[in-house]
Amino acid sequence: MPRTRPLILQVFYTFDAGGAQIRFVQLANHFQNRYAHIVVAMDGRFGVAEKLEPNADVSLRTVPSVKGRMFANRAPFRRLLAELKPDLLVTHNWGTMEWALADMPRLAPHLHIEDGFGPDEAQGQLARRVWTRRLALRRSAVVLPSRNLHRIAREIWHLPDRCVQYIPNGIDCGRFAVSPDPLRTSLWRGSGPVVGIVCALRAEKNVGRLIRAFALTGRDVTARLVIVGEGPERPALEAVVRDLHLQDRVTFAGHMRDPEQIYGGFDVFALSSDTEQMPYTVLEAMAAGRAIATTNVGDIRHMVSPENQPFIVPCDDDALAGALTALLTDAPLRRRLGEANRIRARATYDEAGMFEAYAGLYDRLIGAR
Fold it and tell me: CB under 8 Å to 237, separation ≥6 — which residues?
């Protein structure tokens, strides 16, 4: 039976929470009648699937593979490509590079989307990975959601200009301009302003830096720190809180669905990562009208409003503590920065532009088959 709509094979290392996964959900939910998708999660985890709308044409599939055996996995991956005959193969980040290699020579047009790097590449590119990307992507379309990544793709991976395209992430800004859910925020509301972070608790997020910086603000202001998210670093982070005697001031809220209902419960949104590119959480906090204090990684300084840029600081405990203290002790400043961020998010990062760019790219690659 002929297909009624183009089939796109979307490959993720994991389909648990992350920027790449959330962006795909946005696209799949928006283009429900335009494309059909098969999502492969190499680790067999599909946690973000709960955010897909019932009418989104998305099926989930686990494909057996051997971790760390790039060339051993090539044959089964290639057999599946030959069986499914997708109109487009989309791979996401380094963890799926084996699929790009399996598609050589081409069985389907290929799009690779690179959102950023893990802790092993936080301080610089690994030579083996640079050469692999250069080999696997030189005849593919490559999308980068940050200008920093766009520069890396051209200057370090040496990909041709015709291959690379900058498409910034976008969000439904109106969805985040809502009042906080009182049942959720009551878990941490007390006296003083609230610093909030929303992220997976992984090593590269360096939430320990934020906890230490928050501790340094104690002599100037009484505030609370709320950590929303789960991950393997949580036990170590809880130990840091105990060592600094912050148990009464730091709340681990765990994973929370529907984040638009919690940003309004923060007075300051913070990130303390060693590596980011264009994090969705910063866009969400901007759309919610929050003042932002983060480390100066990726595109964050250029994402926020010009007024907020002085609070995007080096990857240093003292520098982040200084930014937090300045914001926590000045409520009118927080309100001004929050409103400037809200205006910038609506003007620059609404999801409509992202939808248009991806639809144009999908259609061009599918039509070129």
Answer: 201, 207, 208, 211, 227, 252
Quickly list DSSP for 35-77: -EEEEEETTS--GGGGGS-TTS-EEEE-----TT-TTTTHHHH
Q: Which residues of 303-319 are buried (b: 16+ CB within 10 A; e: fewer)?
A: bbbebbeebbbebebeb
In a domain, 1, yes or no: no
Question: pLDDT at residue 369 above 90?
Answer: no
Domain count, the chain: 2
From CA 328, how far away is CA 216, in angstroms rounded?
A: 12
Q: Which residues, other chains included, contact 353 with Cβ-Cβ below 8 Å and sequence gap of 6+?
A: 168, 170
- Bond from prior residue into 105 cis (ω within 30 degrees of 0): yes
Question: Which among 8, 3, 142, 11 has a CA at the least distance from the CA of 88?
Answer: 8
What the block records as the tokens of 283 is: 């866009």
Strand ranges across the sheet with 7-12 = 58-61, 36-41, 7-12, 88-92, 110-113, 141-144, 164-166
362 and 340 in a single domain? The answer is: no
Q: Which strands form 268-271's sheet, in the order they lie side by side?
A: 250-254, 224-228, 194-198, 268-271, 291-295, 312-313
Convert the pLDDT of each residue in 71-122 to its tens digit. Answer: 778 889 999 999 999 999 999 999 999 999 999 999 999 999 999 887 777 6
CB 48 within 8 A of CB 15: yes
Containing structural domain, residue 329: 173-348
Query: What are the residues facing 224 on neighbouring strands?
Result: 194
- Domain-embedded: residue 65: yes
> Is the torsion defined by CA of 67, 58, 10, 271 positive or negative?
negative
What is the spatial distance between Cα 99 and Cα 131, in angstroms, rounded to a whole number? 16
Q: What is the pLDDT of residues 299-320, one digit of tens each?
A: 999 999 999 999 999 999 999 9
